[in-house]
Amino acid sequence: MGAGAAGIGLASGISLGASKPGPGAASPHDAEDQVLFIGDDTAIADTVYGKVQGFILRDIFQFRGIPYGADTSGKNRFMPPQKPEPWSDVRPAVWWGNSAPQDMENRYGNPWYSFADHWNYDDVSEDCLRLNVWTPAIADGGKRPVMVWYHGGGYRNGNAIEQDGYMGENLSRKGDVVFVSINHRLGPIGFSDLSGVGGDAFKDSGNVGALDMVAALEWVKQNIANFGGDPGNVTIMGQSGGGSKVCTLAAMPAARGLVHKVVPLSGSSTSALDQEYSRKLGAYILKEAGLQPSEIGKLQEMPWKDYLELAGRAQDAMEKENPEGGGFRGGFRPVADGVNIPKGTFYSEAGGVSSDVPMLICSTFHEWGMSRTNPELEQIDEAGAKKMMSDRTGFRGGLGDKAPEVYDAYARVFPAAKPIEIMCLVASNRKSVVETANAKSGQPAPVYVAWFGWEPPLFNNRMRAFHCLDICFWFNNTDLMLTHTGGGSRPRALSEKMSGALLNFMRTGNPNGGGLPEWAAYSPEKGETMILDDQCELRNDPDREAREALPS
């Protein structure tokens, strides 16, 4: 983390080693060569539902917006995903599928964040079960490793291509792999548990968004060989809320055999929402709508925008009537119903659902970068930082009287860090990463842990190693996501190593051999962690002392 990196022995010099032309900005073709090919007989692939037609861009086949499920509106709302209707003509797959229903109000309201992240959003509707494919070849008998990407945004927002860093072209080309990204139901549309008020007909309603994610993997199993991929070697990867999604998928019985490696970034989970809470929220939804249980079908007839507002009011009412918490916090996310998603702690059985599935888990130094749009915080002193931490810590509540102790613990581990950097590290602590790694390490398959500390020279160096930054490094997209990296040889050098490690992990379940230093598997005793920066190194649990000062 820049100056603070010295506290854990990281070099702060810039690596300017030789590298090949950058992805996105350069291509395998000369400038005068044609790079886009589309036509009546170009890029036509088979699926079990019918043929789809995409295009070829810089030697990579692209297919956009392929249906993997039926429209989820009307009678299909709150129901498990249904198969799409087959089609007889060749279906165009040249544009992205609809984003799932979500609150789009003021999505671009902050011009600085809009510039830095330049979100990609298109039409929004309940006909959103679509996926995208990038592949070097189709129908060639190839057995290429497959990446399936689950977007961030918690369980409420986002889509499969919301950032340019999500694009799969460059990783597909570099590693000769197939890249898939999906949209699925979100928020109250995807996770309203009406089983307590609607009975058996709505028994799966709290998890239909998660079942969508499984349906996409079933589509991959059935169809990906036609796109040059190996259905027996599928890596699922997600960031932020997507990291939680892939952890949940790896624990779902329905995903057994569909997932072979899992990569959560900056988000993870070891349990799902308690069903007592989710059913209580379902009852509040019905109450807010003024409906009797016999009238629950009317919730399927409402316009989706009206339903989102209704469900939001119901959540607010429930939390207002339970101001002390008491288990009445959680919102709309996967539910531990004991059928679709297990109760208790994920990965707690040595021979459980994902016991043979390796995991690579990563977070960033500064998930919560407080000063990016608040330059004044760069000048905060130690006393001011401790006061601010006592009141609030990032997305979380404050640390109260414990703030000075926590601050001092982090300052000892990161002696060169400025007060603002200490605040960011505390707010971005690795507790959930370590909890997930510890839980998964009880199973036979290995776990590899990384901590990303590279900082872009943008916004007067205030961005630091922020939430979402590492995605484009893993996907070889640092010259495509310029507003995150600045572009050029420095980020490209690290991206070469990180994408190489990811590709090796996809192939073998072991990231070694891709350009990073020797990466030992994680153990709870040593806490082996790969530091990702201009100079990378493996450290044993570098922030343990600091982290142990945090409240339990």
Compute the gyration radius: what is it? 23 Å
Q: Overall mean pLDDT score?
A: 91
**Total domain modules:** 2
Helix content: 25-40%
Low-pLDDT stretches: 1-26
Query: How many alpha or pi helices?
Result: 16
Distance between the termini: 25 Å
From the spread of the alpha carbons, the general shape counts as globular
CATH topology of the largest domain: Rossmann fold
State the CATH superfamily name of the largest domain.
Answer: Alpha/Beta hydrolase fold, catalytic domain
Structural class: alpha/beta
* Portion in beta strands: 15-25%
Strand order of the largest sheet: 1-4-5-7-9-8-10-11-14-17-18-19
Number of strands: 19
Instruction: Quickly give the CATH architecture of the largest domain.
Output: 3-Layer(aba) Sandwich
Major sheet size, sense and barrel closure: 12 strands, mixed
Give a verbal description of the structure.
By secondary structure, this protein is α/β, with parallel strands linked by helices. It has 2 domains: 188 residues, 3-Layer(aba) Sandwich (Rossmann fold); 232 residues, Rossmann fold, CATH 3.40.50.1820. Helices cover 28% and strands 16% of the residues. It contains 16 helices and 19 strands. Strands 1-4-5-7-9-8-10-11-14-17-18-19 form a 12-stranded mixed β-sheet, sandwiched between helices. α7 crosses α8, α9 packs parallel to α11 and α10 crosses α11. It starts with 35 loop residues before the first strand and ends in a 5-residue tail after the last helix.
